[in-house]
Write a structure and sequence with these properties.
The chain has 126 residues and is of the alpha/beta class. It has a single domain, classed as Cupredoxins -  blue copper proteins (Immunoglobulin-like, Sandwich), CATH 2.60.40.420. Helices cover 13% and strands 33% of the residues. The strands form 2 sheets. It has a 4-stranded mixed beta sheet, with no helix packed on it. A 4-stranded mixed beta sheet has the order 3-8-7-5, with no helix packed on it. A hairpin with a 7-residue loop joins strand 7 and strand 8.
């Protein structure tokens, strides 16, 4: 039985697309050898990051997703020191932004919300 050429092309395209996307294990790794990390905020009135500490390997491309889960407060995420990545000055409630950077040498790198003094977190690079 012969198949329709357009149908065969669609099936082949679908198989190639699935192969390119990979199976993924939910580990947060990207297909290009980098890593995705998510840092959110408290959903209530507490002025804190959630989680307050995240980890990543040294010399790795990072996609850090900052997710402002607050329903009332704008926040931001600004690294201090050797990492210069930062979000917009105001990330409004319910919005998110993604930062892309390469991790430096092993160490602890602090990030803050410049809107709310005392709202701090750490990226531990191993």
């Amino acid at each position: 039985m012969k198949g329709h050429p357009i149908l065969k092309g669609c099936v082949l395209a679908g198989v190639l697309l699935l192969a390119a996307c990979g199976g993924g294990s939910g580990s947060g790794n990207t297909s290009s050898g980098g890593q995705t990390i998510t840092v959110g905020t408290d959903t209530g009135a507490n002025l804190k990051f959630d989680p307050t500490t995240v980890e990543a390997p040294a010399n790795t491309d990072i996609q850090l997703v900052f997710d402002n889960k607050s329903t009332t407060q704008p926040h931001n995420l600004v690294f201090q020191g050797d990492i210069t990545a930062k979000t917009s000055t105001l990330v409004m409630p319910g919005k998110s932004e993604t930062l892309s950077f390469k991790t430096p040498a092993a160490g602890t790198y602090n990030f803050v919300c410049t809107i709310h003094p005392g709202m701090t977190g750490q990226l531990v690079v191993k």
